[in-house]
Specification:
The chain has nine helices and 14 strands. By secondary structure, it is an alpha/beta fold. It folds into two domains: 140 residues, Murein tetrapeptidase LD-carboxypeptidase, N-terminal domain (Rossmann fold, 3-Layer(aba) Sandwich); 137 residues, 3-Layer(bba) Sandwich (Glucose Oxidase, domain 1), CATH 3.50.30. The strands form two sheets. The chain has an eight-stranded mixed β-sheet. Helix 9 links the parallel strand 10 and strand 11. The longest helix is centred in the first third of the chain and has 13 residues. The model has no long low-confidence stretch (mean pLDDT 95).
Length: 300
Protein backbone atom coordinates (compact mmCIF):
# COMPACT_ATOMS: atom_id res chain seq x y z
CA UNK A 1 0.00 0.00 0.00
CA UNK A 2 1.41 3.38 -1.02
CA UNK A 3 1.42 5.78 1.92
CA UNK A 4 0.58 9.41 1.22
CA UNK A 5 1.93 12.69 2.53
CA UNK A 6 -0.83 14.69 4.24
CA UNK A 7 -1.45 18.17 2.88
CA UNK A 8 -0.85 21.21 5.09
CA UNK A 9 -1.66 24.92 4.74
CA UNK A 10 0.76 26.34 2.22
CA UNK A 11 0.65 23.22 0.05
CA UNK A 12 -0.76 23.38 -3.47
CA UNK A 13 -3.93 21.55 -4.50
CA UNK A 14 -4.42 20.86 -8.21
CA UNK A 15 -7.99 21.14 -9.48
CA UNK A 16 -9.22 18.79 -12.23
CA UNK A 17 -12.56 18.32 -14.02
CA UNK A 18 -12.78 14.63 -15.07
CA UNK A 19 -16.51 14.62 -15.79
CA UNK A 20 -19.16 17.31 -16.36
CA UNK A 21 -18.86 21.11 -16.52
CA UNK A 22 -19.77 23.09 -13.41
CA UNK A 23 -21.46 26.25 -12.19
CA UNK A 24 -18.82 28.95 -11.90
CA UNK A 25 -20.29 30.59 -8.78
CA UNK A 26 -20.24 27.32 -6.81
CA UNK A 27 -16.77 26.56 -8.13
CA UNK A 28 -15.44 29.92 -6.97
CA UNK A 29 -17.02 29.40 -3.53
CA UNK A 30 -15.17 26.09 -3.20
CA UNK A 31 -11.86 27.60 -4.28
CA UNK A 32 -12.24 30.40 -1.73
CA UNK A 33 -13.07 27.86 0.97
CA UNK A 34 -9.72 26.13 0.41
CA UNK A 35 -7.79 29.38 -0.03
CA UNK A 36 -9.20 30.78 3.23
CA UNK A 37 -7.74 27.75 4.98
CA UNK A 38 -4.28 28.50 3.71
CA UNK A 39 -3.97 26.31 0.63
CA UNK A 40 -2.58 27.36 -2.69
CA UNK A 41 -4.53 26.29 -5.73
CA UNK A 42 -3.51 25.34 -9.24
CA UNK A 43 -6.53 25.93 -11.50
CA UNK A 44 -5.67 25.28 -15.16
CA UNK A 45 -7.69 27.22 -17.70
CA UNK A 46 -8.70 23.89 -19.29
CA UNK A 47 -11.05 23.04 -16.40
CA UNK A 48 -13.45 25.66 -17.75
CA UNK A 49 -13.77 23.99 -21.14
CA UNK A 50 -17.08 22.53 -22.27
CA UNK A 51 -17.86 19.83 -24.77
CA UNK A 52 -21.60 19.29 -24.52
CA UNK A 53 -22.23 17.48 -21.23
CA UNK A 54 -18.47 17.04 -20.66
CA UNK A 55 -15.87 19.41 -19.22
CA UNK A 56 -13.76 19.27 -22.37
CA UNK A 57 -12.57 16.44 -24.59
CA UNK A 58 -11.65 13.04 -23.17
CA UNK A 59 -7.98 13.61 -24.03
CA UNK A 60 -7.89 17.00 -22.34
CA UNK A 61 -9.62 15.83 -19.15
CA UNK A 62 -7.29 12.84 -18.81
CA UNK A 63 -4.20 14.90 -19.64
CA UNK A 64 -4.95 17.31 -16.78
CA UNK A 65 -5.10 14.46 -14.27
CA UNK A 66 -1.87 12.96 -15.56
CA UNK A 67 -0.13 16.34 -15.39
CA UNK A 68 -1.27 17.06 -11.85
CA UNK A 69 0.12 13.78 -10.55
CA UNK A 70 3.38 14.16 -12.49
CA UNK A 71 3.97 17.72 -11.17
CA UNK A 72 6.04 17.60 -7.96
CA UNK A 73 4.78 21.08 -7.04
CA UNK A 74 1.22 19.71 -6.67
CA UNK A 75 0.59 18.08 -3.30
CA UNK A 76 -3.00 16.85 -3.77
CA UNK A 77 -5.57 16.58 -6.57
CA UNK A 78 -9.23 17.55 -6.09
CA UNK A 79 -12.12 17.04 -8.50
CA UNK A 80 -14.29 20.03 -9.38
CA UNK A 81 -17.49 18.09 -10.03
CA UNK A 82 -18.94 14.69 -10.89
CA UNK A 83 -21.86 14.30 -13.27
CA UNK A 84 -20.73 12.04 -16.09
CA UNK A 85 -17.62 11.37 -18.12
CA UNK A 86 -15.03 9.76 -15.85
CA UNK A 87 -15.61 6.28 -17.29
CA UNK A 88 -14.64 7.55 -20.73
CA UNK A 89 -11.16 8.70 -19.70
CA UNK A 90 -10.00 5.66 -17.71
CA UNK A 91 -8.10 4.13 -20.70
CA UNK A 92 -6.23 7.44 -21.08
CA UNK A 93 -4.99 7.69 -17.50
CA UNK A 94 -1.23 7.24 -17.05
CA UNK A 95 -1.35 4.88 -14.09
CA UNK A 96 2.39 4.20 -14.14
CA UNK A 97 3.14 7.89 -13.55
CA UNK A 98 0.48 8.11 -10.85
CA UNK A 99 1.82 5.00 -9.10
CA UNK A 100 5.25 6.64 -9.02
CA UNK A 101 3.81 9.89 -7.64
CA UNK A 102 1.01 9.03 -5.20
CA UNK A 103 -0.79 11.95 -3.57
CA UNK A 104 -4.22 12.53 -2.00
CA UNK A 105 -7.04 12.51 -4.55
CA UNK A 106 -10.54 13.64 -3.55
CA UNK A 107 -13.87 13.21 -5.33
CA UNK A 108 -17.19 11.35 -5.32
CA UNK A 109 -20.26 10.62 -7.44
CA UNK A 110 -19.09 9.88 -11.02
CA UNK A 111 -15.51 10.30 -9.78
CA UNK A 112 -16.02 6.91 -8.10
CA UNK A 113 -14.70 5.40 -11.34
CA UNK A 114 -11.36 7.14 -10.89
CA UNK A 115 -11.20 6.54 -7.13
CA UNK A 116 -11.56 2.80 -7.55
CA UNK A 117 -9.23 2.66 -10.56
CA UNK A 118 -6.46 4.60 -8.78
CA UNK A 119 -6.64 2.35 -5.76
CA UNK A 120 -6.90 -0.81 -7.85
CA UNK A 121 -4.00 0.01 -10.17
CA UNK A 122 -1.71 1.89 -7.76
CA UNK A 123 -2.71 0.48 -4.36
CA UNK A 124 -2.88 4.01 -2.97
CA UNK A 125 -5.50 5.33 -0.55
CA UNK A 126 -8.04 7.70 -2.10
CA UNK A 127 -10.65 9.95 -0.52
CA UNK A 128 -14.38 9.82 -1.20
CA UNK A 129 -15.50 13.30 -0.22
CA UNK A 130 -16.92 16.68 -1.23
CA UNK A 131 -15.92 18.11 -4.58
CA UNK A 132 -15.03 21.75 -5.17
CA UNK A 133 -18.55 22.85 -6.11
CA UNK A 134 -20.02 20.84 -3.21
CA UNK A 135 -18.63 23.20 -0.57
CA UNK A 136 -21.21 25.83 -1.57
CA UNK A 137 -24.05 23.69 -0.19
CA UNK A 138 -22.20 21.40 2.24
CA UNK A 139 -23.06 21.34 5.93
CA UNK A 140 -20.56 22.43 8.56
CA UNK A 141 -19.60 18.87 9.47
CA UNK A 142 -18.66 18.15 5.87
CA UNK A 143 -16.64 21.35 5.48
CA UNK A 144 -14.77 20.77 8.72
CA UNK A 145 -14.02 17.11 8.06
CA UNK A 146 -12.81 17.86 4.52
CA UNK A 147 -9.52 19.19 5.87
CA UNK A 148 -9.46 17.81 9.40
CA UNK A 149 -8.80 14.35 8.01
CA UNK A 150 -5.32 15.48 6.99
CA UNK A 151 -4.63 16.39 10.63
CA UNK A 152 -6.02 13.13 11.97
CA UNK A 153 -2.78 11.19 12.11
CA UNK A 154 -4.37 8.59 9.88
CA UNK A 155 -7.02 7.70 12.45
CA UNK A 156 -10.61 8.42 11.47
CA UNK A 157 -14.09 7.43 12.54
CA UNK A 158 -17.52 7.79 10.95
CA UNK A 159 -20.75 7.27 12.87
CA UNK A 160 -24.10 6.34 11.36
CA UNK A 161 -27.03 8.68 12.01
CA UNK A 162 -29.12 7.49 14.96
CA UNK A 163 -26.85 4.42 15.22
CA UNK A 164 -28.49 2.65 12.29
CA UNK A 165 -27.15 -0.84 12.76
CA UNK A 166 -29.24 -2.83 10.26
CA UNK A 167 -27.68 -6.25 10.72
CA UNK A 168 -25.46 -6.82 13.77
CA UNK A 169 -21.86 -7.90 13.77
CA UNK A 170 -18.30 -6.70 13.27
CA UNK A 171 -15.95 -7.03 10.33
CA UNK A 172 -12.51 -5.63 9.52
CA UNK A 173 -11.28 -5.12 5.96
CA UNK A 174 -10.36 -2.52 3.37
CA UNK A 175 -13.11 -0.08 2.49
CA UNK A 176 -14.10 0.27 -1.16
CA UNK A 177 -17.06 1.48 -3.18
CA UNK A 178 -18.80 4.79 -3.83
CA UNK A 179 -21.65 5.70 -6.14
CA UNK A 180 -23.69 2.56 -6.82
CA UNK A 181 -24.65 3.46 -10.39
CA UNK A 182 -21.03 4.04 -11.33
CA UNK A 183 -19.87 0.86 -9.59
CA UNK A 184 -22.45 -1.21 -11.46
CA UNK A 185 -21.32 0.24 -14.80
CA UNK A 186 -17.73 -0.77 -14.10
CA UNK A 187 -18.62 -4.47 -13.90
CA UNK A 188 -17.13 -6.38 -16.83
CA UNK A 189 -14.60 -3.67 -17.68
CA UNK A 190 -10.83 -3.77 -17.07
CA UNK A 191 -11.40 -1.22 -14.30
CA UNK A 192 -14.00 -3.00 -12.21
CA UNK A 193 -13.27 -2.85 -8.47
CA UNK A 194 -12.54 -5.94 -6.41
CA UNK A 195 -15.19 -6.30 -3.71
CA UNK A 196 -13.89 -9.62 -2.37
CA UNK A 197 -13.07 -9.51 1.35
CA UNK A 198 -13.87 -5.79 1.44
CA UNK A 199 -16.25 -3.51 3.29
CA UNK A 200 -18.51 -2.14 0.54
CA UNK A 201 -19.73 1.45 0.73
CA UNK A 202 -22.67 2.44 -1.50
CA UNK A 203 -24.67 5.63 -2.04
CA UNK A 204 -26.75 7.19 -4.82
CA UNK A 205 -29.10 9.96 -5.92
CA UNK A 206 -32.31 10.01 -7.94
CA UNK A 207 -32.54 6.23 -8.37
CA UNK A 208 -35.86 4.54 -7.67
CA UNK A 209 -35.75 1.63 -5.27
CA UNK A 210 -36.34 -0.91 -8.04
CA UNK A 211 -33.33 0.44 -9.94
CA UNK A 212 -31.15 0.09 -6.86
CA UNK A 213 -32.46 -3.48 -6.59
CA UNK A 214 -31.68 -4.08 -10.27
CA UNK A 215 -28.10 -2.78 -10.01
CA UNK A 216 -27.29 -4.81 -6.92
CA UNK A 217 -29.00 -7.89 -8.34
CA UNK A 218 -26.97 -7.64 -11.54
CA UNK A 219 -23.75 -7.31 -9.54
CA UNK A 220 -24.73 -10.30 -7.42
CA UNK A 221 -25.65 -12.43 -10.44
CA UNK A 222 -22.29 -11.51 -11.96
CA UNK A 223 -20.64 -13.09 -8.91
CA UNK A 224 -19.17 -9.86 -7.56
CA UNK A 225 -20.86 -9.61 -4.15
CA UNK A 226 -20.53 -13.10 -2.65
CA UNK A 227 -17.43 -12.33 -0.60
CA UNK A 228 -18.25 -8.84 0.66
CA UNK A 229 -17.48 -8.71 4.41
CA UNK A 230 -19.79 -5.84 5.35
CA UNK A 231 -21.97 -3.11 3.86
CA UNK A 232 -21.90 0.61 4.62
CA UNK A 233 -24.91 2.56 3.37
CA UNK A 234 -24.42 6.27 2.83
CA UNK A 235 -26.88 8.87 1.56
CA UNK A 236 -29.62 7.73 -0.82
CA UNK A 237 -30.91 11.15 -1.82
CA UNK A 238 -34.23 11.31 -3.70
CA UNK A 239 -34.27 7.53 -4.02
CA UNK A 240 -37.54 6.78 -2.27
CA UNK A 241 -38.15 5.47 1.24
CA UNK A 242 -34.94 4.57 3.03
CA UNK A 243 -36.63 1.61 4.73
CA UNK A 244 -37.42 0.13 1.30
CA UNK A 245 -33.82 0.56 0.16
CA UNK A 246 -32.56 -1.01 3.37
CA UNK A 247 -34.85 -3.97 2.69
CA UNK A 248 -33.30 -4.43 -0.75
CA UNK A 249 -29.78 -4.33 0.68
CA UNK A 250 -30.65 -6.79 3.44
CA UNK A 251 -32.03 -9.21 0.87
CA UNK A 252 -29.08 -8.93 -1.52
CA UNK A 253 -26.58 -9.57 1.27
CA UNK A 254 -28.55 -12.26 3.11
CA UNK A 255 -26.39 -15.22 2.02
CA UNK A 256 -23.97 -15.15 3.62
CA UNK A 257 -25.29 -12.60 6.12
CA UNK A 258 -22.87 -9.73 6.75
CA UNK A 259 -23.00 -6.72 9.10
CA UNK A 260 -24.80 -3.71 7.60
CA UNK A 261 -25.08 -0.11 8.75
CA UNK A 262 -27.10 2.73 7.24
CA UNK A 263 -26.95 6.46 7.74
CA UNK A 264 -23.24 7.15 7.23
CA UNK A 265 -23.19 10.85 6.23
CA UNK A 266 -21.42 10.40 2.92
CA UNK A 267 -22.56 10.69 -0.68
CA UNK A 268 -24.89 13.09 -2.48
CA UNK A 269 -26.43 15.83 -0.40
CA UNK A 270 -25.21 18.43 2.12
CA UNK A 271 -23.50 15.72 4.20
CA UNK A 272 -20.53 14.13 2.48
CA UNK A 273 -17.90 13.60 5.14
CA UNK A 274 -14.48 12.38 3.99
CA UNK A 275 -14.24 8.59 3.70
CA UNK A 276 -10.83 7.05 2.93
CA UNK A 277 -10.96 4.18 0.46
CA UNK A 278 -8.48 1.37 0.10
CA UNK A 279 -7.73 1.55 3.82
CA UNK A 280 -8.36 -1.00 6.57
CA UNK A 281 -11.26 -0.24 8.90
CA UNK A 282 -13.59 -1.99 11.32
CA UNK A 283 -17.32 -1.90 10.79
CA UNK A 284 -19.19 -2.25 14.09
CA UNK A 285 -22.86 -2.57 13.20
CA UNK A 286 -23.87 -2.88 16.85
CA UNK A 287 -22.49 0.60 17.58
CA UNK A 288 -23.13 2.03 14.10
CA UNK A 289 -19.49 3.02 13.69
CA UNK A 290 -16.85 2.69 11.00
CA UNK A 291 -13.37 3.07 12.52
CA UNK A 292 -10.13 3.31 10.55
CA UNK A 293 -7.31 1.79 12.52
CA UNK A 294 -4.24 2.14 10.35
CA UNK A 295 -2.49 5.26 9.16
CA UNK A 296 -2.95 6.22 5.54
CA UNK A 297 -0.33 8.97 5.66
CA UNK A 298 3.42 8.47 5.43
CA UNK A 299 4.24 10.21 8.69
CA UNK A 300 1.76 8.26 10.83
Amino acid sequence: MAALKPIRPGDTIGIVAPASPFEKAKFEFGLKFLEDRGFRLSVPEEVFQRDGYLAGSDAQRARLINQMFADSNIHAVWAARGGYGTLRILPLIDFSTICANPKPFVGSSDITALLTALHGRCRMPVFHGPMIISFAEADEATRGAALRIFESGGRWQLRAAACRGIRPGRASAEVTGGNLTTLSHLIGTPFEPDFNDRLLFIEDIGEATYRIDRMLSQMKLAGRLGRVKGVIMGNFTDCGRLEDIIGVVENIFSEPPVPIIAGIPAGHGPSNVMMPMGVEATLDADEGVLSYHCGFFADT
